[in-house]
Design brief:
Strand content: 5-15%
Helix content: 40-55%
Shape: globular
Bound molecules: flavin-adenine dinucleotide
Order of helices and strands: HHHHHHEEEEEEEEHHHHHHHH
Number of strands: 8
CATH architecture of one domain: Beta Barrel
Strand order of the largest sheet: 1-4-5-8
CATH topology of one domain: Butyryl-CoA Dehydrogenase, subunit A, domain 2
Structural class: alpha+beta
């Protein structure tokens, strides 16, 4: 039995042969990724007719490793692939998938998410950005905020109100908006940790082709729920691992990733750097302090339960179930871990923890942790909202009173 479990899945040999035959390190990045996408080996769990092979989700990691072992690079990564692509796979027409999926996979097009507004975050359905039909186009005006990566995006997934008369959820539509137009103004926001990863986006009669409406007019809320479920369950978008060789194609992929992930360089600090807690405690001789030991134990407890939740979520995916409330449990776990880690770091370092500068011991990373972890409790749905989801959908508690909302 153990032998069976260790056996490689049957498709691995076929993929290795394909990669050995086709990988050309001197080629160009988009050309290689186009070939990889068309072969289905770049996203093996996707449907066969859309750049995949209908293999189980576990095949994604297996195939990435095969590419890595062959010295080859895989598909583009980021918001485009983990939020936009799954939404399009579920809701877009074949024409829309034909137009948008391949440039997402090759990295030719970068995307951002234009959902939140100054008056609509947790209560997203209160959004006020308007879209009006004008012939073959929609004309969009309003303001979005906290839009990560919008300063570099070619397209955005955008929610706008198309009907003021129907209930607030039913009046929303989901659009794919080209960002490179004069009517879209992107203004970076300066964060308290010194980075500028998200933006305000002002739309002043921006134009969107009618063909870029996803699903029906007024059906945008249901489409957005798919995006949000993927956002909660995607715990993070890690920078891909690159093979250790200096081929032009690998260098091009690294350059692309460096540029993309520069926006998110503070995300590991946002997660609290839990793995640094114990080494820091040992380095500074605080490992026997009962308060520190208690915090280290709590962080380890959270890490272990998070592994189990992730396993449960992958088992649910393997069984063909869409992302469910376990995404909220995982997300809340990450927030609690981040907060506890920040507390442990400051307990260990005391006032030194707030110092910045290269001469600081151990280094300025911890100061960045302390001012970045609050974002973990907000991005992708706040802790309180995750608790509501867990209370209502997992524990079966009565629904929160909705006041003037129409849910
Ligand atoms: C790092 C980061 C990246 C982000 N990236 C994007 C992006 O790319 N695109 C995008 O569109 N948005 C993005 N956001 C925005 C994010 O989705 C919103 O900030 C989030 O949904 C919360 O909305 P809000 O900021 O308006 O807070 P509010 O909704 O105003 O909440 C304020 C407080 O009230 C609490 N609260 C609200 N409603 C309830 C309730 N019903 N019950 C109990 N408590 C409640 C909240 O938990 C919070 O503590 C990002 C945010 C961060 C921090």
């Amino acid at each position: 039995m153990a032998g069976d479990m260790n056996r490689e899945p049957r498709y691995t040999e076929e993929m290795r042969e394909w990669v050995n035959e086709r990988w050309d390190p001197a080629g160009d990045l988009v050309g290689w990724r186009t070939e990889l996408a068309r072969s289905g080996w770049g996203n093996p769990s996707w449907p066969t007719e859309w750049f995949g092979r209908n293999l189980p989700p576990s095949s994604e990691a297996v195939c990435r490793q095969i590419l890595h072992d062959a010295g080859a690079v895989g598909m583009a990564s980021g918001v485009s692939t983990y939020l936009v692509a799954p939404t399009l796979l579920e809701w877009a027409t074949d024409e829309q998938r034909d137009q948008f999926l391949l440039p997402i996979l090759t990295g030719a097009h970068k995307w951002c998410q234009l959902f939140s507004e100054p008056g609509a975050g947790s209560d997203l359905a209160s959004l006020a950005t308007r879209a009006e039909r004008d012939g073959d186009e929609w004309v969009i005006s309003g303001q979005k905020v906290w839009n990560s990566g919008a300063q570099k995006a070619d397209f955005g997934i955008l929610l706008a109100r198309t009907n003021n008369d129907s209930s607030k959820h039913q009046g929303i539509s989901f659009f794919l908006i080209p960002m490179q137009q004069a009517a879209v103004e992107v203004r970076p926001l300066h964060q308290m940790n010194g980075h500028s990863s998200f933006n305000e986006v002002f739309l002043d009669e921006a134009r969107v082709p009618a063909a870029n409406l996803i699903s029906q007019e007024g059906d945008g809320w249901r489409v957005a729920l798919t995006t949000l479920a993927h956002e909660r369950s995607a715990v993070a978008t890690p920078r891909p691992k690159f093979p250790v060789n200096e081929s032009p194609l690998v260098k091009a992929a690294k350059r692309e990733a460096d540029e993309y992930f520069a926006t998110y360089s503070w995300y590991p600090q946002r997660a609290g750097r839990p793995k640094l807690v114990l080494p820091q405690a040992r380095n500074l001789g605080r490992q026997n302090d009962p308060l520190v030991r208690n915090l280290v134990a709590q962080i380890e407890e959270l890490r272990r339960t998070s592994v189990w939740t992730t396993k449960r979520a992958s088992a649910a995916r393997r069984a063909g179930r869409p992302p469910g409330p376990e995404g909220s449990v995982a997300k809340l776990n990450m927030s609690v871990t981040a907060k506890k880690s920040a507390r442990a770091h400051s307990t260990i370092l005391g006032t030194h923890g707030v110092l910045t500068g290269t001469s600081v011991t151990p280094n300025e990373l911890i100061a960045e942790v302390l001012v970045s972890t609050p974002a973990q409790s907000i991005a992708g749905g706040t802790d309180e909202i995750q608790k509501n989801i867990i209370g209502e959908r997992v524990l079966g508690l009565p629904k929160e009173p909705k006041g003037n909302t129409d849910e």
